[in-house]
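Hi,

I'm pasting everything inline rather than attaching a file, because the server keeps stripping attachments. The sequence lines come first, and each chain or strand is labelled.
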Amino acid sequence: CSESDLGPISLNWFEELSSEAPP
Amino acid sequence: NEAEQLTPLLLDDLTDENLQFVSKLKDSSSSCAVDVSTVWWEAAGRRELCVVTACEISVSLWKPLAPDHWGRVYTWQLGEIPVIQIIPLPDTCNLICIALGNLEIGEIRLLLYSSANDSFKQSLVKTGNIKAVLGLKDRRLVSSSRTMQEQQVEVVSLSETGRSKDGQTLMPPEETVLAFAEVEGVRDALVGTTAVNSVVVWNLKTGQLLKKMHVGYSYPASICHRAYSDSGLLFVVLSHPHAKESESCGNPAFRVIAFNPKTARSTGVMFSSLPPGHAGRQYLEGEVKDASAAAVLTSGAIAVWDLLLGQCTALLPPGPSGSWSLVRWCVTSARLLAGQTDGSVYVYRYS
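And the predicted assembly:
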């Protein structure tokens, strides 16, 4: 799979989603 | 014709090479085996890997006495509600968790040994209409349960004597959660699969629902078995107990899907299909450990797959005394427990 198929990838996805999601 | 002649030979080779019989355990008092598992058990300063067998009304603990010989340590009698399954608890010792109920789980209990008064005990952990439960690291249990109005997703901590006071409620998705998997490589991440084929991601520490990602309707009723994070992607191992054969990927029993949790986009990484001669309906139940999956097929055989290669690596035909009904991986990998309905459990070495 390529990055273009899946969109921009972040190694820190868990931390980033945790800071964006409602508490 | 050539394919038909080659297939039995290939399947015989698979069994001989990769699965070697080690020992047999027969519970003479049981005629209704419902589950089997392994647990570390320490007694008199000696820690051993023991086998746990469950039938509808009791659960027994067995310890190895000699090669090919097992001795019963204790049997817990459970009462009126039937045992449905044993819930493995990773990294624990002297603790067995079981689910009881009729069509679905109504009760979760702990079976344990109390050194304080030198006795075997059982204690109630949770009751309700429980749809899914999984044992987590650090002696915790996550479950989803439904009332008429709402769904509750809860993590409870277990003490040596039962349920602890600390717990965490996770934000529930709208749809019912049917299975859970801890995310290897990301502490505090948990995934679940839902009744409408979504994969959801939680933060176990805060209880936040971080993402909901759709799997697609090609393979309905997907169940998550394992999840790990690598290079910014979330890899989820799904099984498809009721999937239909398709031209593009054969008859998939298990799939590895890579999700980008930031965008919720996904792509299939690997398919593990049923072995030749097992088309049609899929399997009854299965289990994943590391990169290996095992399942009982509707033919009564057990199949083992290497999920990274996407290949069936072993096939155990139905035994002389009947079809296989259960298959479980040992706590320590490379051992497989295969159960029959008469209560016999066969231990195989898998290589």
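The first helix of chain A runs from residue 3 to 6.

If the labels don't parse on your end, tell me and I'll reformat.
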